[in-house]
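Morning run. Coffee first, then this:
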Amino acid sequence: MFFVPLFFSRFFGGPGVLFAFLVIISVAFLGQTTLAAPNDSAKEGLSSQRGAMDRAYSAWRTAMISRDVAAWEKSTATSRKRVTKNLMISQQHSFPKSLFTIPIRPPSVLQLRLLKEQVSGVHGQLIYFGKIDMGVGSRGVIPENLLVLRFVKEANGWLFDSMSFMNLEGSPEQRAQFLAGDISMLEGGDFAMPEGSPEISKQVGYPDFVGHIQVTVRGYRATVRVNGVDCGTVENANETNLVIGGFDKGQNDLLVEVDRLPLKDESKRFFTINAYVMVKEPDRSRARIFHYQPENMHTVPERMKVDVWANAVTIYGKSKP
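And here it is:
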């Protein structure tokens, strides 16, 4: 079973970069327990929290379908609005003009079964099961899958944050468990509720260059920031992340903080970082402007602060493009 990072998602600007407009879909496993009420239970048994979150999702869904910017602003969590705007701007897409150019339709939950309702502090989560119709790839019979809706409670009540879609096509035994009412697998893992208030990220401006940071590490955890903006943490993986705020023309600050992790086979320890800007050329879509790989994979500095230059020399290899 796997989660599809479906935020309403699109791929923009280069390989491996998922552009999540309004919802986030992550490939992962879930967990944490809380009281759940099936969708077919009596209306009187539904908690006020669940009802408020359902209304928040309905308002957000209506805003998306009707392409109503004001309604989207009103129904979306503050932190999510900032993330969405930054993602669009960082890829040089106009905001809010590009807000509704998504390839899928927010699904209705009216015919879905509520498996679990979770509330922890300002965070809420509803986990639904059923035939989830997003308007794409649904020729013929729509199979039962899992939908997770997440919310944030602000001064005026619950607001929509994000959604995840779990495709059970390769897990018929788990689909059968849900059909039988067994929700034990929803405990622990990525179903866990976040702690504390969501962070409101810094608003970025339109970049000179759309940028990506590729981090490949084994036996290390690397946290990357470009020009003071977080670009994600990578642990024992190969990931390419969008640079929020992009690269400025000229000098850029790259900060990498590294944690050494235990590894059974020390000979497989590995660390490398590449920085790219997007270009429009017949033979390539991006240009590498920075590369770091230590001579000795066992002696990676705990903290690196370096200059990354985006100019004609680093992009085109000459003084003028």
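Residues 1-46 have pLDDT under 50 and may be disordered. Good start to the day.
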